[in-house]
Amino acid sequence: MMQSGLLGTATGPAKLQNVTRIMEALTEDLQSGSLQPEKREALLEELKIYGRDPSFADPIFTKDGIATLTKHAFDSSSDATAQGALRVLCNALLLKPDTREIFVSAGYDAKACQRLQRSDNSEDEFLVSRLLLLSTYATNVNVPKLVKEHGLADSLANNLARHAARLSSESSSKAKAQPMVEMALTETLKLFFNATQYAPNDIASFEPATAHIITILRNAALPSQQTKTPLNPPTPFDPPFGLLINALMNLHFSSSTAQEAVYPSSSPSSVADRLVHLLSLSMEAYTNSDLEQTVSPLVCILSAVHEHAPDPVQKSIREALLPTEADRQDVLGKADTLPSRLLRNWTNPEAPELGKAISHLYFDMSDKDPHKFVENVGYGYASGFLFQKGINIAPDAIGDTNEVEGSDGVHEIRRPVNPITGQFLDTERPVEMPEMTDEEKEREAERLFVLFERLKKTGIIDVQNPVVQAMQEGRFEDLPDDEELD
């Protein structure tokens, strides 16, 4: 096919010929420096267009091609040249996974870290962070070495500090950020998560970034505060929020640095309140398939925040998430509240990891006390979790307990609840059923007998079989063989 007159539009063999010519010119330029800056930048722009489709662009993806592009990216004194080469490299590593190992094996990941240390603009931050992010997939990259010897954690913290400072300004937080600024933050947060994932023994090196992540989390505009339409509902985990939650996943909230950031002295509950609000928005916005991937990490972060929080913050979280009187007007999980939505997803078969995260959070909010746990969520929800954890609970823990210890140590009487469903007993509605025949009663007794015998074998409960007890007390009457049944 004949080459078109438009830049980078040739296809087939003509495209391969053009790509080869450009790569040869860029390689020769490394030795001679003969290309004028404008010409060099034009060649890189044309190469970027050709590199968007790997067919007939083989010279870009070879070891020599990657070497040429990397030298222009990291050794050039011109930012325009460097950024042009970085764009081609990013496309190459994205489209041809084999090039990632070429990049890492040649030590170019270390060079990328060095450039990231010098980056003070969003364009560089975006391109270099994406390049490093891609190099963490399907390669032998040594992230701990990049942290210890090439300042990766420090560079990420510095870039996050710049974003935090921008959002801390009232005028900046209300203004719409430039697209490249938002894209740079997105790539930095993605790289931060991967770096902490692959360097778990160096988490302390990432701790300085905690305060900046929290600042961004507190100051970024929530989706509900942005203009949305019925056809475009709020999606709470749109960037940066989902990425901010992921970035916090591998950090330790017990350190003094994290404590100051997560529980600021001026407003200790502000971070927890923001997380709870995000959770509320998310439980309304996402369906089953999205809940598993998006909301599970948020619930895990809330558990960590609750675990290491001072008492007032723990109280605030519990007041927001534990079932209230409104929830107990019906069987727990039926109301249109945040606690009920969480309980409904406790056993959601399409979101098993979310269910695990929710059950752990509620167990933690119950001081890891199985009795409080049952009181808070009802035995119906608590039993499976306790069984999986091998926690046996005494029979009296599931009785109609209506006496609790108040904050002042005085025992208070509260409205009794159904220990299984968590509903107030005085709001339960009687179930209208037709009178059972004697034959139906006998079948039901047999079924209950078998059920309780199976439960005793599992160890979930340790109570006397009620059918056996009734027989021992003479409450069952043997029917004569010739008696007619209704």
Can you give a write-up of this model?
With about 475 residues, the protein is an all-alpha fold. The chain has a domain at about 440-475. Helix content is about 60%, strand content about 0%. A two-stranded antiparallel sheet has the order 1-2. A hairpin with a 5-residue loop joins strand 1 (about 405) and strand 2 (about 410-415). The chain starts with 11 loop residues before the first helix and ends in a 14-residue tail after the last helix.
Radius of gyration, CA atoms, in whole angstroms: 31 Å
Determine the oligomeric state from the structure.
single chain
Give the strand line-up of the largest sheet: 1-2
The first-to-last residue Cα distance is 91 Å
Give the % helix.
Answer: 55-70%
| Portion in beta strands | under 5%
Brief overview, please?
This protein is mainly alpha-helical and about 475 residues long. The protein is built from 24 helices and two strands. The protein is about 60% helix and about 0% strand.
Write the layout of secondary structure elements.
Layout: H1 12-32, H2 37-51, H3 63-75, H4 79-95, H5 98-105, H6 108-118, H7 122-134, H8 143-150, H9 152-168, H10 170-174, H11 179-198, H12 203-206, H13 210-219, H14 241-248, H15 256-262, H16 270-285, H17 288-307, H18 311-321, H19 338-344, H20 352-365, H21 370-377, H22 379-388, E1 403-405, E2 411-413, H23 438-458, H24 466-472
Antiparallel strand pairs: 1-2
